[in-house]
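Something for you to look into today, if you have time. What I am after is a single protein written out in full by you. I want to see for myself how the chain folds. Could you add the entry underneath, on a fresh line?
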Amino acid sequence: MADQSEKFQAGQAAGQAQVKKDELVSSARDTAESCKQSCQESQEQAAGVVHQTAEKMMNMAQGATDAMKNAVGMGSNTGTTNQ
């Protein structure tokens, strides 16, 4: 049978283990939240890059279309003047 000192030490060890566990859980939560925010920011940046790239491609395609129309004489700049 354990004496008072052993019971006290066992209780103290259990309390210290609980504190350590709580610290680790809190740290894990903080890390997970930080990762979540970082991922959201990265996702927003990626969406912005994709949007800008799509706009550039559309502008390039429109420019190519206009150049082709002008080359074959179907463009709006075919020498006619608007008066």
In short: The mean pLDDT is 89. Helices lie at 4-71. The two ends are 111 Å apart (CA to CA). The chain is about 80% helix and 0% strand.
